[in-house]
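User: Run a structure prediction on this.
Assistant: Running it now.
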Amino acid sequence: MLTTKSLTFAYGADKQFAFPDLSCTDREALLILGRSGTGKTTLLHLLALLLQPKGGSVVMNNTDLTQLSAAQTAAFRAENVGIVYQKPHFVSSLSVMDNLLMANYLASQPQKKERARELASQLGFTDRLDKKTNQLSQGEQQRVSIALAVMNQPGVILADEPTSSLDDTNTDLVIDLLRQQSEQIGASLVVVTHDQRLKDVFRNRVNL
């Protein structure tokens, strides 16, 4: 479960943000919509512990993340937060399998090859596990990104503009995959986007 209260952030005196309070329970999906410049990516980075808020709180699994040290924050993020970036982030020298296992390593967990194979089967890239990520199509890379985000069965999945460069068919596919994985592992799903096609797909919406 994820909640925020009175969350603020500033890039100097001229660019300040005050965000609405959020709440997203386990297996629930929340859509955060907004035009460019409204702070969508900033909010996602605050939720992902990549930025420290100026004020307010981010509570995940009954832990106030703003009270953690830098080392505690990194460890908590690796274990409890899965991020689907707008552009996939992979280690290009590693195979798809090794990229997935890297998520276990960063969370100080044992390698879970069976978990990786299970996700590959569910998301349709079993035959690509031994390939380098630059050998994959855009759609395959996106599916691997989703698998990477849920390898450690996080409590919260954050998706940054996951459909901005996709046609309608692939948009539906990616959102279905994200929701399926969220429900399977009992995670809160937060999607940050300016893609107006998604506003009718999510019951819970926040506009920035």
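The first helix runs from residue 40 to 47.
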